[in-house]
Amino acid sequence: MIRIRLLQGRAQEAYEYLAEPGKDQMSMFDPGSYLQLKAVVEYSLGNETESVAAMQEFERLHGEEMPVLLAQIHAWRGETEQAFSWIEQSFEPEKQLKKSELLEPFLYSLHEDPRWASVMARLPPNSGLD
After folding, report:
1. How far is CA 89 from CA 3, 23, 47, 68, 69, in A?
2. Where are the domains of the chain?
3. Which pTM does this prediction carry?
4. Cα torsion angle, 22, 28, 32, 36, sign
5. Torsions phi, psi of 26, nearest 5?
6. Which tops the pLDDT comparison, 56 or 101?
7. Cα–Cα distance between 75 and 71 in angstroms, integer?
């Protein structure tokens, strides 16, 4: 629901769902997703300080094991170089990057960059959604 609202340009509704009172928000999402969503929602609302704080917390707690999610945050924020840097880390063999992770709408802003085609070409044939 939060991702859909963001993609629809309805960041305030995404924020209200993310911050819905009476719910343990951290338990509603898989590890890292709450912080990832918080970072992009806060950015979309113009709350730079809160967005950066959530992004830094995500990087501290989950960046090593989920670099592609950090790339998605940077891409949403328009930080193309940082996004490609984290995508590059996603190609480390132990990360087992899947094509579906690169088809995430948060990365759409990277698709026009000339580097995108080479990123997709590097995926092994058995990486999912082939």
Report:
1. 24, 34, 28, 8, 11
2. 1-62, 65-130
3. 0.88
4. negative
5. -65, -30
6. 56
7. 6
